[in-house]
Amino acid sequence: MTVVSIQLTTVRQPPTNRKVKSVSESVFIWCLHCERAYHRDKARGGNCAYDDCDGSVSFDGWNWNDIREGREDRYPASPEWGKVYSQYDD
Ligand SMILES: [Zn+2]
Q1: Could you tell me the distance, in angstroms and rounded to a whole number, from the CA of residue 7 to the centre of ligand 1?
Q2: Whose CA is closest to 79, among 30, 34, 42?
């Protein structure tokens, strides 16, 4: 006798795109291109606030709070303008 068990109860959470979601909630945005952070009000249209950078907010912008995570001692809640905050410093 063969018992065929079909699992219908698997409930998966939809994949959370934490980056995109949190960027829209974040006041400060960290740019993947230039590794600098800026206030979202300073973004040049959909682009990085720094005019020597061609990064975009939606593709290259990360939530500053995600970058800060675990580095709160070195990365302030309000990032310094023009300062490079490397993502891979440790
Ligand atoms: Zn940038």
Answers
A1: 47
A2: 30
